[in-house]
Amino acid sequence: MKNIKISIIFFLWLSAFNIIAQSHEFDLDKEIPIDPTVKVGKLSNGLTYYIKHNAKPENKAELRLVLNAGSILEGEDQLGLAHFIEHMAFNGTKNFEKNELIDYLQSIGIEFGADLNAHTGFDETVYKLSVPTEDKTIFNTSLQVLRDWADGITFDHEEIDNERGVVAEELRARSGANMRMYYQSIPVITNNSRYAKRAPIGTLDVIMNSKYGALKRYYKDWYRPGLMALVLVGDFDVADTEAKIKKIFSGIEPVKKPKERTYYTIPENIEPTVTVITDKEAKGVKVSIYHKQQKREVVTLEDYKKEVLQKLYTGMLRQRLSEVELEPDAPFLSATAGIGKFLGNMDSYYLRAILKEDKVSQGIEALLEESERAKRYGFTVSELERYKALLLNNANIYRKEEGKIPNTYYVEQYTDHFTDNDPIPGEEFIYSYYKNILPNMTVDEVNKISKEWVKDNNIAIVINAIDKEGLKLPTEKEVLKIVSESKIKEVDFYKDTLSSAELMNKKPGPGKITNTAYNKETDVTTWTFSNGVTVIAKPTQFQNDLISMSGFRPGGSSKAPDSLYVSARSAGNIIGASGINNISEIDLKKLNMGKTVKVTPYINFYDELFSGSSAFADLERMLQMVHLYFTKPNKDKNVFNAYKERLKSTYKDQDNSPGAFFEKKKSEVMTHNHLRGIPLTEQQIEKELKLDEVYNFYKNRFSSANGFTFIFVGSFEIPALKNFAAQYLGSLPSNLQEKSSWDDIGLRRPKGVIKKTFKKGMDDKSKVVMNFTGELDYSPEKRKELMLLAKLLKIKLTEELREKMAGVYGVRVSGFASDRPYHWYRMSVEFTCAPENVEKLIEKVLEEIEKIKAKGALKADLNKIKEAELANTRDQLKLNGYWVSKLKTAHEFGLGYDAILDYETGINKMTSEDFQKFANTYFNMDNYVELILIPEN
Fold first, then answer.
1. Residue 576 in contact with residue 743, Cβ under 8 Å?
2. With the C-alpha atoms ordered 918, 920, 926, 929, is the resulting torsion angle positive or negative?
């Protein structure tokens, strides 16, 4: 009886909601509703809260403490301290002394960085926690952590001084050409506003020398309940959680005479402002054009309609720009456009492009020309109808996936609602609204958007470019002339060239299934077809209407001789972007608008691959596309030329960038300068990348489907998938006499001890890479051992290098193993630091490795790793992509599927001695590479 009552109540609520949603079509003056599935409230002290139940992932929650204050509110003696306080939140609170907070959270499976983090912006500060919810004590403690951050950071002076070095290292890690150019550009784009002087990272002088009182003063002034919100989304009871919030957070005292929270503005500029910024360590040439205007509140359904019109306008403009990229002798490498948040009180209509170095001015002209074409003539009815279908389909996906969407999707929405008053009507309402309003939206309405945004005032233009001899850049005066002339230049109408092509005009007959197998424990069905194709199928309800597909077979570019390597390695990318069945990629995207389907072929070193996804209604179309990528791929010269130019741009001047230079040197050392292991060069691409070779290699590799395996995981019915797989995969052409395999290309890791130091760059920073390599009898279990060992070492190095020595902002530790082209492994430690600290940090890394070799893992660290692995695996088992990956590994190595479910046994039986054994096996000082990058001066 209780369940019947609940069902009736839910039905009445849903019916009432639908009536409300439909009525909005007729009254656009009404305010945008707030999603009824989120509980929004405010405590008497002014603190706002958002609470939503969401069971994706199960027994987990995302918690946020959001502060409507950031670096823009800093005084002159506080530059960078808003961000510094974020660091101090992890270094001592009322209930967690010093580093006890991180230790506690790691002990319950929360990983620092992934599940525990924070960020500071100009106008907001956000603290982030991802926590389990099945244990009420842990969940309650997590809420107490948020409370401690809100008003209980202790600011121990010793901890402040210890943390100065860590924040300084974060500033150092971010330094480089991009940061230098950013600091030069922001005064121009913000018209010398306060935003130009309040970058969140701050200044090194303040970070290292600020008084303790300046840090505490910012905390006292701005960490107050009236500027705070709690955002909680997860698998918990909403009413119970609301009661806990009231109990825990109502005790925060409101400030009696609060300092005014000023909302700083960006002054308007009548004439366009232009800056051309060059840097010797930059890469390529980029342009950004901003048309700024006052941010308008989105309150009513009429306002919301304007948002939809803007999405339609900029979405169609982006499509046109993508077509220009493929024109013969295209004027730019890539371009995009949009309307969105800028800074402060401004939003912007923006145009951005990566330009060709020999066509800088022409590229800017072409970018402006497309914008002017849209403004002058608008869009076509056919373009609009396709993009309407795309928006409605996307809204429908989110509506159907309600309850299966990750928590982070919602917390970001609610955060923006609090800080920027962005609408949060909910997925059901958005779909209903789109369904009602899109059919009546006209081309004329959409075309008016440009009149509102593309105006002569409040324009800012930034050109970022490499500083090198021979590169001709326009002057600021010349850029202004290009802008001026674009408004009077003769421009043609846009012609929508989509033909009435049918994706597959003749369907193949079905292939024959020769064997069927079923694994009951994992609900996995396997079919083998007479053409040598295998299909592995696992239906799930992890998503309501989404399917993931992966196809794979050994081979790849290893099958090409060295003379064809450059063409072979790009064959999948180029032909995969060229369309199918004489339908160009551009037209294929147009044909698929309004559908949920994507298919991409790849060719890597040792495999031919397919990646795909679809809704159940589009499953047949996904398999038709796979069939056509085998049987009728296109050979598109324009796609080839555009890809070639972009690839050349990627590797052009790579020795000028310290990061790219160091990566290149690392590759040369770690692969013995092997042709296939090092970055390409611009000259190599120009000379050796050839369309005929690309197309012929692709055709050769996909001429036979024998040996291919396709895995499908998601929301589908087995009989339907069986029929479609038989028709489109089982019918693929096949040479059963030729079994595909990868070839040993001779790539080997170095042996012995190698230590090299390289000089490059003007910033006062060094990069360090420490690699341990060797051979092993490969298995997926051994690869897991390396990954776990990396996690242990990362915990120890974070404690020592960051928390105790304040020598790094972060340290990356990774373990990897493979059986291709031979059985080998690599353990790697990488970090950025001050040049003067390189040797002592390397020494400390080696010291920590020796400790693990001697004593294994400490009990506390072992528990952290176990809890994190158990929590992560539980979450991943509810993801289609995880099952695809695990089934692929099991199939390739002949493993039983049952082991995928039996993960707890392996994790729980890990011992300290295991890690001691791993360390002594994989940290072999006889095969050790140490590479260091230091600045030139």
1. no
2. positive
**pLDDT recorded at residue 7:** 38
- 269-283 burial, b for 16+ CB within 10 Å, e for fewer? beebbbbbbbbebbb
Strand partners, 829: 770, 813
- Are 782 and 776 a contacting pair, CB within 8 Å? yes
Q: What is the pTM of this model?
A: 0.94
Give the whole-angstrom CA distance, residue 294 versus residue 457.
12
pLDDT digits (tens, 9 = 90+) for 835-894: 999 999 999 999 999 999 999 999 999 999 999 999 999 999 999 999 999 999 999 999
- What is the end-to-end Cα distance of the chain in Å, rounded? 80
Q: How far apart are CA 118 and CA 107, in angstroms?
A: 19
Q: Residue 534: CB partners within 8 Å, gap ≥ 6? A: 526, 527, 528, 708, 709, 710, 891
CATH of domain 273-406+414-486: 3.30.830.10
Tokens of 631: 């049987």
**What's phi and psi for 512, nearest 5 deg?**
-105, 135
What are the E-state strand segments in 189-298?
228-234, 273-279, 285-294
Task: Taking each helix axis as running N to C, give the angle between helix 212-222 and helix 157-174, from 0 to 180 degrees, rounded to the nearest 10.
Answer: 90
Q: How far apart are CA 366 and CA 320, in angstroms?
A: 11
- Token couple for 264: 């700083």
Contact 323, 495 (CB under 8 A): no
CB 32 within 8 A of CB 303: yes
Q: Report pLDDT digits (tens) over 671-713.
A: 999 999 999 999 999 999 999 999 999 999 999 999 999 999 9
Question: E-assigned strands of 646-765?
Answer: 709-714, 753-759
Distance of CA 212 to the CA centre of its chain: 37
- Residue in the structure block whose two tokens are 């492994």: 825
Instruction: Write down the pLDDT at residue 330.
Output: 94
Answer for the pair 670, 828: CB distance below 8 angstroms, yes or no: no
CA atoms of 483 and 459, how far apart (whole Å): 10
Angle between helices 780-797 and 859-876 (to 10 degrees): 130
For 448, counting Cβ atoms within 10 Å of its Cβ (0-12 exposed, 13-18 middle, 19+ buried), the class is middle
Inter-axis angle of helices 780-797 and 912-922, nearest 10 = 100
Task: Tokens for 572, please give them.
Answer: 């999948």
- CATH 3.30.830.10 positions along the chain are 38-249, 273-406+414-486, 513-728, 753-934
Q: What is the H or E stretch that residue 218 is in? A: helix 212-222
- For residue 10, pLDDT beyond 70: no
Domain covering 513-728 assigned CATH 3.30.830.10 in the classification:
yes
Q: What is the DSSP letter of 654?
A: T
How many CA atoms within 13 Å lie on the side-chain side of 622? 28
Q: Cα–Cα–Cα angle for 428, 432, 436, nearest 5°? A: 170
Contact 648, 570 (CB under 8 A): no
CA distances from 693 to 168, 255, 571, 677, 696 (A): 50, 71, 8, 21, 5
Residue 786 token pair: 């390396």
**841 within 8 A of 766, measured Cβ to Cβ:** no
d(CA 131, CA 705): 45
Pick from 924, 925, 911: which is nearest to 785 by CA? 911
CATH architecture of 753-934: 2-Layer Sandwich (3.30)
Report the topology of domain 38-249. Answer: Cytochrome Bc1 Complex; Chain A, domain 1 (3.30.830)
Q: Which residues pair with 104 in a beta bridge?
A: none
Of the candidates 412, 95, 43, the residue with the CA atom closest to the CA atom of residue 225? 43
Question: Residue 72, Cα to own-chain centre: how many angstroms?
Answer: 27
What residues have CB less than 8 Å from 771, skipping those under 6 apart? 670, 826, 827, 828, 829, 928, 929, 930, 931
Inter-residue contact 644 to 680 (CB < 8 Å): no
- Residue position matching structure tokens 């597909």: 549
